[in-house]
């Protein structure tokens, strides 16, 4: 169908609404929708000369010169909003030159890799609350001379910065809090020379990084280098989250080893390990999306003339790295399951102890309930119930003696398990002897010599 004809075909109610707006409202009075968090959306645009240099660029989507390519990146805010609102933000930012079909392919959830309007579009967007650290969304639209990417929040190491601004290139002093609460500095002479002091929590964050900073990123010289860089930083982000999760799990295991009843009960009440297991499942979902998408990206890019063979090999290495990361996350998930199983067994043990005390308390009153039940029956001939007979006047005392005797016997079985085990072993020995004697008699009957009778053997 021709595009001009598509515009004429529509709903009659929509046309009447448009006519009503034209007649009743002027153009300046029509309320245009603007998302309330449009100012929180970050936009970055770069242009690369193909020789190892890059420059900041205006957000104009202008065609670059020969041997140059552009990169436009959008960072959606990590706030609790519905997916259509994110799509409306992208419509305001990317439309035009992109169409609604292109924007929907970038913002939708789930794995995707295909050609949309002549461009290669792939995404690894996971469903989940946007504020969660385990919800990842990264989509890219790749053409021969431009790349457009959309991410949820900031992706570490995705950008570029001068090497002189890198924190890792300095020798700072580490600031820690002493026992009195006053900050102190250890190591280096950063206060005297550069004056750079690194906080302890910043150092702890840097320990979770398995890569260098943005200042150490090589500047892409082609679009294929840029695509590999985007996928590489995405895997670095997943690796950072996995490492941080593993460190948190190590600290939790240490707390469990040192903690007591209150700490374990608090962890069970807070459902800490089920939440950790849920976060791991979200992380595994993102890794599974990458396993579906990135091999297809490599397959589709291998047929492109502008995608170099070296970058194809780099994509193959990244896919293998993603599979190893999935195995590591599986090991961590097994650890969480084992710790949760240990807590469940501890909780079952606590319940069994309480039930043991409750059953012990019920045993104390068990003889009294039995005897009151027996002597409370409305039948004749029950002993010690004829209170007028002087021979059985001490019936109540005798009943108490019976209760005490039964109670002592039960307590002996509970307090001295060895006695109960000896009695049980004695009973088993008697049963075995009886069984052995019966088997021996049967065996002797079968092995006695038979007597021939009239040249026949009696069976």
UniProtKB/TrEMBL annotation:
Localization, UniProt: Membrane
GO cellular component: membrane
Domain of life: Eukaryota
Pfam families: CorA
Topology of the protein relative to the lipid bilayer: Multi-pass membrane protein
Residue ranges crossing the lipid bilayer per the database entry: 355-379, 399-420
InterPro entries for the chain: CorA_cytoplasmic_dom (IPR045861), CorA_TM1_TM2 (IPR045863), MgTranspt_CorA/ZnTranspt_ZntB (IPR002523)
Coiled coil: none
Family membership noted in the UniProt record: Belongs to the CorA metal ion transporter (MIT) (TC 1.A.35) family.
Protein name per Swiss-Prot or TrEMBL: Uncharacterized protein
């Amino acid at each position: 169908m021709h595009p001009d004809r598509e515009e004429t075909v529509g709903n009659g109610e929509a046309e009447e609404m448009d006519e009503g707006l034209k007649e009743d409202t002027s153009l300046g009075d029509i309320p245009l929708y603007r998302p309330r968090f449009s100012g929180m959306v970050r936009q970055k645009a770069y242009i690369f000369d193909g020789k190892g240099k890059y420059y900041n660029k205006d957000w104009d989507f202008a065609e670059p010169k020969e041997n140059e390519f552009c990169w436009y990146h959008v960072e959606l805010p990590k706030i609790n909003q519905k997916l259509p609102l994110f799509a409306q933000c992208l419509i305001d930012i990317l439309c035009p030159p992109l169409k609604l079909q292109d924007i929907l392919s970038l913002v939708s959830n789930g794995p995707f890799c295909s050609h949309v309007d002549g461009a290669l579009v792939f995404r690894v967007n996971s469903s989940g609350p946007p504020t969660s650290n385990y919800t990842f969304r990264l989509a890219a639209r790749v053409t021969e001379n431009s790349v457009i990417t959309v991410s949820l929040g900031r992706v570490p190491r995705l950008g570029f910065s001068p090497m002189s601004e890198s924190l890792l290139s300095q020798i700072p002093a580490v600031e820690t809090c002493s026992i009195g609460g006053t900050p102190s500095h250890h190591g280096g002479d950063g206060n005297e020379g550069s004056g750079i002091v690194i906080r302890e929590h910043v150092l702890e964050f840097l320990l979770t990084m398995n890569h260098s900073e943005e200042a150490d990123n090589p500047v892409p010289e082609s679009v294929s280098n840029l695509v590999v860089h985007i996928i590489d930083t995405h895997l670095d982000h997943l690796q950072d989250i996995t490492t941080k999760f593993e460190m948190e799990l190590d600290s939790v295991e240490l707390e469990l080893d040192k903690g007591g009843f209150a700490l374990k009960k608090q962890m069970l009440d807070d459902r800490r390990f089920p939440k950790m297991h849920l976060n791991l499942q979200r992380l595994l979902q993102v890794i599974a999306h990458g396993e579906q998408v990135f091999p297809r990206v490599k397959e589709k890019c291998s047929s492109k003339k502008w995608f170099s063979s070296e970058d194809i090999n780099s994509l193959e290495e990244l896919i293998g790295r993603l599979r190893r990361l999935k195995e590591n996350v599986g090991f961590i998930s097994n650890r969480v399951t084992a710790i949760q199983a240990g807590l469940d067994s501890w909780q079952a043990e606590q319940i069994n102890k309480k039930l043991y005390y409750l059953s012990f308390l019920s045993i104390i009153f068990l003889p009294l309930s039995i005897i009151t039940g027996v002597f409370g029956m409305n039948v004749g001939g029950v002993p010690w119930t004829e209170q007028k007979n002087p021979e059985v006047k001490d019936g109540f005392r005798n009943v108490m003696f019976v209760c005490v005797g039964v109670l002592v016997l039960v307590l002996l079985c509970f307090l001295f398990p060895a006695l109960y085990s000896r009695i049980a072993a004695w009973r088993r020995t008697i049963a075995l002897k009886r069984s052995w004697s019966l088997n021996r008699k049967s065996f002797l009957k079968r092995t006695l010599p038979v007597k021939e009778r009239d040249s026949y053997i009696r069976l």
